[in-house]
Amino acid sequence: MTAAAPIPVTIVTGFLGAGKTTLLRGLIERRQTRRLALMINEFGEISVDGALVRAASEGDAHVQIEDFAHGLIAYGDDTRFVPAMQALARRRANVDHVLIETSGLALPTAAMALLQGADLAADFVLDATLAVVDTPLLLSGAFEHGAEADAAATMFDQQLEFADVVVLNKIDGLDEAALLEAETRVRRRAPNVRFLELAYNAQLDIRLALGLRLHQGTRTDHGHTFAPLPDANATPLASQYRLNGHAHSGLAAHSHGLATHKHFHEQDPGWLSFVLRSDAEQEVEPLTAALVDVAKAQPVLRCKGHVRVQDRSVLVQGVRTRVAVSPDAAAGNAARRSQLVFIGYHISRAQVAALLSAGTGTTWR
Ligand SMILES: Nc1nc2c(ncn2[C@@H]2O[C@H](COP(=O)(O)OP(=O)(O)OP(=O)(O)O)[C@@H](O)[C@H]2O)c(=O)[nH]1
């Protein structure tokens, strides 16, 4: 009996708020006959992304979604990723492609390592790792190395470094000169990146996203050898080392770094995430203005959640000082309580709660 072909896996990485979930929703809409399984991981303790993707695929029996809120999947102390993937392998007759959305504070390398490990290598093959980039933010210099932004800049660099494909997202308002400048900046920071793709309105051509087969050469039946997998429990920095460089047919040889260190926020406890809640009805304009003020006063890199406005619920999405409020397809009309998750580097929960409460004239805690 011939072994079943391994299921291709695409890892979608990218910094907080780059547009990973939006891009995945677009891919689901244009999946045609492909049967997709999605693993969605986010940093905060409430799951917003999973609900949004679920709303995009409602009623579609060919889209399976596994939601991993809180924590980082595939990292050292995660026990959920491998069993979830093995369960997918058992249902392989119904899965053509797996997409993994990593948290905005994770590197793709942890999942890459497990895919190549003994538990999963026979059933899965890495198709490609995509890094989604918030292009206006890149051009604004937000990821330049400087005293304050260092942690974000480092994470951004590492996500690019381990990607095969960089997706320039949020480019709807940019002209050609800006796009060329963005490409130059990406190439300077990540010379190993093989393709740059443009996603207008977070729409990526599905043929450019799935089925790239960039890592087929990494399978052992192609004669490649690897350094042993890192010990996931080793101390964070000591366990970071590279796989042997390997050639891809028709493409230049390159190597992938493997940094299967534990939670990034354990390594750098400056990364914080917390949820603020309010039982009071909110108004969109003061709330939006208050969130912008919060992001100016505190190092908030991301905020999102469901907020009750009159008799309905709205979805709030903030990436630094850009805050958008839209109808809440995922929560329906039911959110009785407003909940917003905030993620940032050295942010003060007390300060954010005070500013938000003062700006909205309601209690947030
Ligand atoms: N203008 C514009 N906005 C976009 C685009 N893609 C995403 N956004 C917006 O950017 C915000 C963040 O998008 P998400 O898809 O949630 O980002 P994410 O990378 O999944 O975020 P995290 O999982 O929190 O890291 C949302 O308000 C989106 O509507 C785009 O191409 N153009």
UniProtKB/TrEMBL annotation:
A GO cellular component annotation in the UniProt record: cytoplasm
GO molecular function, one term: hydrolase activity
Catalytic activity: GTP + H2O = GDP + phosphate + H(+)
Entry-linked SUPFAM superfamilies: Hypothetical protein YjiA, C-terminal domain, P-loop containing nucleoside triphosphate hydrolases
Keywords of the record: Chaperone, Hydrolase, Nucleotide-binding
Domain CobW C-terminal: 271-360
Classification via InterPro entries: CobW-likC_sf (IPR036627), CobW-like_C (IPR011629), CobW/HypB/UreG_nucleotide-bd (IPR003495), P-loop_NTPase (IPR027417), Zinc-reg_GTPase_activator (IPR051316)
Classification via Pfam families: cobW, CobW_C
Regions annotated as coiled coil: none
Keyword Protein biosynthesis tagged: no
UniProt entry tagged with the keyword Chaperone: yes
Chain's role: Zinc chaperone that directly transfers zinc cofactor to target proteins, thereby activating them. Zinc is transferred from the CXCC motif in the GTPase domain to the zinc binding site in target proteins in a process requiring GTP hydrolysis.
PANTHER family recorded: COBW DOMAIN-CONTAINING PROTEIN, COBW-RELATED
Family to which this protein belongs: Belongs to the SIMIBI class G3E GTPase family. ZNG1 subfamily.
Official protein name in the record: Cobalamin biosynthesis protein CobW
UniProt organism field: Pseudoduganella buxea
